[in-house]
Design brief:
eleven-stranded mixed sheet; six-stranded mixed sheet; 712 residues; mainly beta
Length: 712
């Protein structure tokens, strides 16, 4: 086993400003060291994720966070990186970091869950986790009058009681020592870099005699007067134990200390996720509001600081059977106020890849000011022009990752209820309103809400598809990732979206809702001209409906765009006439082929007959398969022969050319490029429900089929 280079720690900070990072493209270098992650949430609300490689000797190297996905924090790695300007290494640089070209994990870190309910930890915490207090200055600073005794008083008088109350005594802090070492002389120039921050954190633990702290279950808190070059209130290790630096007195100092010590218990922030197309917070269109949860100390608030939320308690292993119902089936639960610090207070359930936490925030105990003065930033600090009231009620949070330092997200849970209005209070789910997950597998309704309790009803639904699907439809790109997607309607009339993953494959299903059994669904691309791909559907009465896409896998309310379509076979073939707008082709009952040109905004131009004799043919969108800039089409006749029709422009097509045989026994979906090679592909479903991918080739032919699914 390779020797670890340095003790594991990651860093989180609250900073005020950042600037764009540098581009890659310079000569490559290789750096070996320990992978550390830094999470920075700037005061203007922007989110900065920092990932650094710390070698045994020399300066830490900041790299792009996304490039190291899946590598555990604390691992020893060798990374090949493209050199970048020095500005990319600035801790305040929002998009900084060198691009990683290759990574070799030399020693994977062992990742263990922190569980404060374990007997050993609980015993150690019985007298309070030891905190060494250090008050100093950075060379050139003058004291601002805050002493070690001042910080010790904050710890014993406010910080420790907060954590003890929130955790039923499982977590508290005790002052182990007080040190005033004078000035730190190792800072150097008047900048704020990763190495400078790591250096002062180590110095503070060294002078207190407790280094290393990160991952060791002990803590140090350094206080200095405000150092202007580092525009943040505090910084702390994200680990089980660690060091914190409080950078001057700003806001409520004890709450800042309590917040940073939360990071040294492995916790992330309490953020918000409002303005979602769907209230459950799944869509990338949601706004992630840094510190937007004003209900506990890991967010930010004006007024009181409420007890720790259930998601963070769960991260600490402190949700017990007496405080929490973990639901896997339908149930009704009566929740006591979180501020009462006793009784059944939390409901936890999972749906998809997310875990949800439900709790009742009554105006009780540390939450008493919810009835009068508690305020915060619902959209996060970046959009906090005016503080908004946070009120008592049932709230829902979600957590998307079990990783150390993961944030919890407070949802505007009532936003998806049909009766929700803009005048409703932020975040709370009031009596009679319902919250539903995006996959429609779980719904939560508040039955009753009083000053002393709230009763909630959780309903679970089996949303697995009832196959075989009655329809499979290909979309050019409904999710905004530049890869074609698939829609499917099951036997119960539910519509599912399978997002394309590239290479011809699709991801897991997302269910949109029921009532699609009597609809013929089509994916014409951008039908209304807003640069987002849409859905079109024809009902049994012949009405044609437009479902405008949001560009991220969702759509808004439908509107009628036509009637009399019950006898037509519709093919969304793309821009057939070359005017820059998506068009429809349709075959009537007499076998005539019609072009319905798109006119923008969802309307049609005057239809034009462009063919005859199409009875007995299935028509498919082909895109531009010969790369001449014109849209082509494909057809399969009753004998299973595949025909290719090159577009001539204006809605017309050249003489057909046979490009295949034996295309019987399948249902096909066309109109999407699922492998991102610029040529439309075909999806086929055989009579056994197997799904096949046919990669398109130039000239109207296809590669050998590849099975990509079953049970369709």
């Amino acid at each position: 086993m390779r020797r670890r280079l340095i003790p594991f720690f990651a860093v989180a900070a609250v900073v005020l400003s950042g600037a764009p990072g540098a581009a890659a493209g310079e000569p490559a270098v290789t750096v070996e060291g320990e992978l550390q992650r830094l999470s920075i949430e700037m005061d203007d609300g922007a989110s900065v994720d920092l990932t650094v490689i710390v070698p045994e000797d020399g300066e830490a190297l900041r790299v792009q966070t996304d490039d190291m996905g899946g590598v555990p924090t604390g691992s020893v790695v060798a990374v090949e990186v493209a050199e970048a300007p020095a500005s990319s290494q600035d801790v305040l640089e929002a998009d900084g970091g060198a691009d990683v070209m290759d990574v070799d994990v030399l020693e994977a870190a062992e990742v263990a869950d922190l569980d404060l309910a374990d007997a050993g930890v609980a015993a150690a915490a019985s007298s309070g986790r030891p905190v060494s207090v250090v008050v100093g200055t950075i060379a050139g600073q003058a004291s601002d009058g805050v002493t070690a005794a001042t910080i010790a008083g904050d710890l014993t008088g406010s910080v420790s009681p907060y954590w003890s109350d929130s955790t039923a005594g499982a977590v508290s802090f005790a002052v182990a020592s007080q040190t005033a070492p004078g000035a730190y002389s190792g800072w150097g120039s008047s900048t704020c870099t990763t190495d400078q921050i790591l250096g002062i954190l180590r110095w503070s633990a060294d002078v207190a005699g407790v280094y290393p702290t990160a991952g060791q279950g002990r803590h140090s808190v350094l206080y200095t007067p405000r150092y202007a070059a580092c525009s943040f209130a505090g910084v702390a290790h994200v680990a089980d134990g660690g060091s914190a630096w409080i950078n001057g007195s700003s806001g409520t100092r004890w709450a800042t200390i309590a917040h940073e010590l939360g990071h040294t218990l492995t916790l992330g922030h309490s953020d918000s996720r409002p303005l979602c197309p769907r209230a459950d917070g799944t869509s990338t269109a949601c706004q992630n509001g840094a510190y937007g949860d004003a209900y506990d100390v890991m967010g930010t608030s004006s007024g009181g600081v409420g007890p720790l939320n259930g998601a963070h308690l769960d991260a600490l292993g402190l949700l017990s059977a007496s405080s929490t119902v973990v639901a896997t089936d339908s149930t009704t639960v009566r929740l006591a106020p979180v501020g009462s610090l006793s009784g059944l207070r939390f409901l936890r359930f999972s749906s998809g890849a997310a875990t949800y936490y439900v709790e009742y925030r009554g105006a009780v105990g540390r939450d008493a000011d919810l009835a009068s003065t508690r305020k915060g930033c619902p959209l996060g600090v970046t959009s906090c022009g005016t503080l908004a009231r946070y009120v008592p009620g049932v709230v829902v949070r979600r957590v998307d990752s079990a990783a150390m330092g993961a944030s919890s997200y407070l949802l505007d849970a009532a936003a998806g209820d049909p009766s929700h209005t803009s005048s409703d209070p932020w975040f709370v789910l009031t009596a009679g309103k319902t919250f539903t997950t995006v996959d429609m597998a779980v719904s939560l309704t508040v039955v009753t809400s009083t000053s002393g309790y709230a009763e909630v009803r959780l309903t679970t639904t089996d949303t697995s598809p009832r196959t075989p699907f009655s329809q499979v439809v290909a979309s050019p790109d409904f999710t905004g990732n530049r890869v074609g997607d698939l829609f499917a309607v099951d036997q119960s009339g539910r519509l599912y979206l399978y997002a394309g993953q590239g290479g011809g494959s699709v991801g897991l299903a997302r269910v949109f809702g029921t009532g699609w059994e009597d609809m013929r669904v089509f994916a014409p691309g951008d039908w209304n001209g807003d640069r987002r791909n849409d859905l079109v559907a024809a009902d049994d009465a012949g009405y044609l409906w437009l479902y405008p896409g949001d560009g991220r896998g969702g759509f808004s309310a439908r509107r009628q765009i036509g009637n009399g379509w019950s006898t037509y076979r519709i093919v969304p073939a793309g821009d057939v006439n070359g005017d820059g707008r998506a068009d429809l082709l349709a075959i009537d009952s007499a076998g005539r082929l019609w072009l319905y040109p798109g006119a923008g905004g969802g309307a049609f131009g005057r239809p034009l007959q462009v063919g005859n004799g199409w009875k007995g043919f299935e028509l498919y969108a082909a895109g531009d398969m010969n790369r001449d800039g014109r849209v082509d089409i494909l057809s399969i006749d009753s004998a299973g022969r595949l025909w290719y029709y090159a577009g001539r422009g204006g809605g017309y097509f050249s003489q057909r050319r046979q490009v295949g045989n034996g295309w019987t026994g399948y249902e096909f979906a066309s109109g999407a490029d699922l492998n991102s090679d610029g040529i439309n592909d075909l999806i086929g479903r055989d009579q056994s429900g197997r799904l096949w991918f046919y990669a398109g080739r130039v000239g109207g032919t296809f590669a050998m089929k590849i099975q990509i699914g079953s049970g369709w």
